[in-house]
Amino acid sequence: MSYTPNPQRYDSMEYRRCGRSGLKLSAVSLGLWHNFGHIDPLENSRAILRTAFDAGITHFDLANNYGQPAGSAEENFGKILHEDFRSHRKEMIISTKAGWKMWEGPYGDWGSKKYLVESLEESLKRLKLDYVDIYYHHRPDPETPLEETMGALDLIVRQGKALYVGISSYHPQETKKACDILKQLGTPCLIHQPKYSMFDRWIEGGLLDVLEAEGVGCIPFSPLAQGLLTNKYLGGIPQDSRAARHLGNGAMEENQVTEENIARVRQLNELAQQRGQSLAQMALAWVVKDPRITTVLIGVSKPDQVKDSIKCLENYSFTGEELNRINEILK
Ligand SMILES: NC(=O)c1ccc[n+]([C@@H]2O[C@H](COP(=O)([O-])OP(=O)(O)OC[C@H]3O[C@@H](n4cnc5c(N)ncnc54)[C@H](OP(=O)(O)O)[C@@H]3O)[C@@H](O)[C@H]2O)c1
């Protein structure tokens, strides 16, 4: 069925400037790590993308290895993009990444110029695009000189194959060095993508300060700790949940649904109810409350989760008392 987007899609979404760049991103972005591969029903992926775009989400995050098999999320997104969103490409910010193992041999992993350039060629073919909006180095490479990896990002922008560049999971010192190199090359770092949620607060220990000082945006991933920070695991492990699917490659497993975690989730859920929010909404609001966060990067398995989660933007202010209570629960 042909798709006509909601004409009111820009009315209720908030758009935030990404660091000190000229680019604004929707305060909620959609990631395609899971639920967009060849193992997933294409029509559900399409429905999620339509729901997100209709709600004013403009930023869609991919990587070379997303989906099962690796690469299939880009293929499916490319297909849906051309079938449904072709005339709206200019309204979308599409990112992809390279940094994790993608093919055999010495040039299919980490951070060499050879890998980053070859991988983007493959991504563009799968996406059926001439360029992506943001190209990321997906994780730090302890062996390749940072000058080479950042040089590859700069080259790709000069070739017109990406408009902006970013880094993911770099620690504060590496981030500062990467930003310095990129600045010298004339391709400033747009954005950093770190893991961040109530259950993993490492970026509060220096990274956010570096990003603020450097004028770099921040897009936290796994803000719901892959679903743990919702009410879905309170009564056991639902069959259709991520934990029950045994997806591997860093996806959450049943053994992460521990009694200790669930005891915390139960208390957080009570607080969310007092605030008139679902726990998912409160957990996302807690991330978005910090003005240094440009956008929160959600994952969803169903269109309704998009609708539920974006309501986090209706209330992301917390009283001091609420924040203290959250800190107490998380201790
Ligand atoms: N840079 C990196 O290294 C890196 C690593 C990981 C992820 N990412 C990016 O971050 C994106 C998000 O990561 P993530 O999927 O782990 O994020 P997440 O938001 O922490 O978890 C998503 C999962 O939470 C559940 N969920 C979402 N909304 C819900 C709601 N309203 N109510 C109940 N449950 C809800 C769903 O679980 P069920 O499937 O169980 O329904 C969904 O699959 C990825 O798609 C990817 O783009 C980047």
How are the SSEs ordered, and which strands pair?
Elements: E1 15-17, E2 24-26, E3 28-31, H1 42-54, E4 59-61, H2 72-84, E5 93-98, H3 113-127, E6 132-137, H4 146-158, E7 162-168, H5 172-185, E8 189-193, H6 207-214, E9 217-218, H7 242-245, H8 259-275, H9 279-288, E10 296-298, H10 303-310, H11 320-330
Parallel strand pairs: 3-4, 3-10, 4-5, 5-6, 6-7, 7-8, 8-9
Antiparallel strand pairs: 1-2
Helix pairs in contact: 1-2, 1-10, 2-3, 3-4, 4-5, 5-6, 8-11
The structure holds NADP nicotinamide-adenine-dinucleotide phosphate.
NADP nicotinamide-adenine-dinucleotide phosphate (NAP) is lined by residues 31-34, 61, 138, 168-169, 193, 221-227, 230, 232, 241-242, 280, 297-301, 305, 308-309.
